[in-house]
Every structure is written in structure tokens, then in C-alpha cells.
Amino acid sequence: MKIGLLGLGKMGANMARRLSRGGADVLVWNRSHEVAESLAQAEAHIAACASLTELVAKLPSPRVVWLMLPAGDATEMALQQLAGLLSAGDIIVDGANAYYKDSQRHAAELEERGLRFMDAGVSGGVWGLANGYALMVGGGADTVAEVTPFIKILAPGPETGWLHCGPVGSGHFVKMVHNGIEYGMMQALAEGLSLLKGKQEFGIDLAEVSEMWRHGSVVRSWLLDLTAEFLKSDQTLDAIAPFVADSGEGRWTVLESVEQGTPAPVMTLALMMRFASQGKHEYTDKLLAMMRKGFGGHGVKEGI
Length: 304
Description:
Elements: E1 2-6, H1 10-21, E2 25-29, H2 33-42, E3 46-48, H3 52-58, E4 64-67, H4 73-83, E5 91-94, H5 100-111, E6 116-123, H6 128-131, E7 134-138, H7 141-154, E8 162-166, H8 170-198, H9 206-213, H10 222-231, H11 249-260, H12 265-280, H13 282-296
Parallel strand pairs: 1-2, 1-4, 2-3, 4-5, 5-6, 7-8
Antiparallel strand pairs: 6-7
């Protein structure tokens, strides 16, 4: 029960903690070695490695190395380095948010070198350490079977909260769609609560409404639980900037709907609203104001 884990961001570090507390020995590597050292000092069964070479050398064969790195260059570089260090039959698991087509490509490239690849969509956020992580995995049956002991530690329960979805790519595909649904659910809750807030003459208490909805209502959910919790202390949110980032999986979900020709209007519009929150609608709105002035002589509000 020894595994290597690369990347100690919020998710990666807590996954290392959960693995170690579940009985696994975890060798960790992070770009900032101080982070790895600090984690190793605070947790039993976690050892910090100063290099990927050291991490690979300390793992028994067949090795299992789990990546929790940002999609793109960081993951590509780590895979290239690992490919030159690992031996035939070793397993690499990409557990970060990644485009499923990239995962399929990675599997094919690593297979040429005798290495096995598995993709794992991981959900659970900062609550995963205590509650477990929802895991959507893709890969060959034999490969998944060898990694299953670690998956069972990470999941909410040994037999619950995780699924072998299919071949390589399927795990990240299911997680991609999961995140698209998440965008839509978040947008609907936010819009609904905004409508309630806007009806000022009713004096509706958003905290009380969201708390009531948590019990027996059709829209009860973990997202509603989280919303009800922060509304208890702050309903105006005056200190919060109206900026909502998008991690990439919402975009990939919308692109998939276009490729399939399968309508996904709710998820698409939720993604567009995130773009709007990032200020990417401002020039569009200026054009609209000028068009309205042009055809109707309507006034234009001067900017600062």
C-alpha cells in the first residue's frame, strides 16, 4: 500500500492526508518542496521527495503514481519526466481536471513505452478529506483493479462514491459532464435567490428560505446546504466581487454538446454567464448602447 502523489494544492494535499490516514504510505512531490516537507512533518505515513527520481526509486513495482496537477503544461511536463523514469507495467493516474481527449492521447503515448494510464475525475473540494471524494475512473480492468485499494480509501465508502466508468478517457468525460451540470445548478440557485432578493416589498429572508428548502424540497442539495450556510452570516455579499471563474470543464462540456449535436442550453448559458461576470461582455454592451443611440437617438451613459 505505497503510492506516489504529485501536486499538493488544496485537493492533492488533502488526498494525501486521507490516503495516509486510511493506511497507505504516501510519497509526495510538489514543485515547492517546502510544502511537501511541511505535510510530511504533520502527517504520519507521508514522506516528502525532493525529486521525481527519488519518488520513483522509493516506490515498489508495479509503481502507482497519482497526479493532481493543473491540466496543460504542468501535467504534460510531469508525464514526460515520469515516462523516462518509470518501468514497464507501472501505472500513472491523472486525477486532476483534464480534457478527456488529452487523457486518451496520454494513454496511447504511454502505452508505447509499456506504461499504463488511468484517468480519474475527482469531486469533493475542500470537504473531501472528511467526507471522501467522488471518483469517476477510466482505464483497463486490470489497471483499475490494482489502484482500487487506494480508490476505496479516497472514496466516501469502500463500495460507494466511486465508479469504474469504462475505458481510458471515460472518467474525465463523466467528470466533465458532472461539472457542466454543476454550472447549471449553481446558476439556477443564484438566479432564483436573486429574484427573491429583488422583491423587496416582501422582505424575504434568504437565509430562512434556503434553510427551509434544505428539508423536504425538490431542490435540496449540497450546493443548497453550502448556500444556506453562508447566507446565515451575510445576505448582501457587498464585499464579494461579482466575478466567477471557470476552470475549463464547463467549456469542454459545451464543446462536446456542439460536437455531438446534443442540445445543452442550460449548461451553455451558465458558462456564458460566467464569461459575462469576468467583464467579457462590457464591449458588447457598449456596442449595443451605441446601436440604440444610432437608430433611436437614445441617450448613452458616459463611462468613467
